[in-house]
Amino acid sequence: MGLPIALAVASTAVGFFGSMSAARAAKREAALQARMIKQEKQRAALRALQEHNARLTGYKSALGTNIAISGISGRDISQDRSLKAIQNRFKKEMSTETDRAFLQNLSEQAKLSSQQSMALEKGRNLSKAYQYQAFGTLFSGAMQTSKLMGTSTIPVRGTGLGTQSYIT
User: Fold this and answer.
1) E runs forming strands in the chain
2) Structural Rg of the chain based on CA atoms
3) Three-state DSSP class for 166?
4) Contact between residue 124 and residue 30 where contact means Cβ atoms under 8 Å apart
5) Where on the phi/psi map is residue 165: left (φ > 0), alpha (ψ -120 to 50), or beta?
6) Spatial CB neighbours of 101, under 8 Å, sequence gap ≥ 6
7) Are 134 and 19 in contact (CB under 8 A)?
């Protein structure tokens, strides 16, 4: 085996293994990105829970203030329509705010799930592309090596059966 053939084989091997390495790296990178997005989803869920707890604390504080005012003023909260209206407004605002925050959190979770799936799919696609490139390198290298080796061509001959005739 001559030097040009050895170099062609080595070049093919380096190209093949380089592309296969890039394919593995693309999968690892996609997995890492998916894990990061998963962590972001968990942080978003925790953030939503903390915000909900803060809203509940504010709501309880407002109700407590309302009850304290009724106690200081000597008004019965169950009989006073204005204090009852204030409490109902607090409840309604709390319900609206909680529903809005819940839907916003669901939307954020769906967006992050979509990003996670997209990252994994991109990684798989890039990995496949590198694998195809690797096998293309093999075929290209084989063609280059065969040219360097000077393959001989074998002439195609007939079947040797000659003419056929049928006896009836």
Assistant:
1) none
2) 37
3) coil
4) yes
5) beta
6) 48, 51, 52, 55
7) yes
Is pTM beyond 0.70 here? no
- CA–CA distance, 91 with 26 (Å, rounded to integer): 51
**Measured distance CA(137)–CA(146) in Å, rounded:** 14
Instruction: Per residue of the chain (168 residues), give pLDDT as tens.
Output: 688 888 888 888 899 899 999 999 999 999 999 999 999 999 999 999 999 999 999 989 988 888 888 878 777 777 778 888 888 888 899 999 999 999 999 999 999 999 999 999 999 999 999 999 999 988 888 888 888 787 554 555 555 555 655 565
The two three-digit tokens of residue 7, written as one number: 């170099």
Tokens of 4: 């040009």
How many angstroms separate the CA atoms of 76 and 71, rounded? 7
Q: Which amino acid is at 40?
A: E
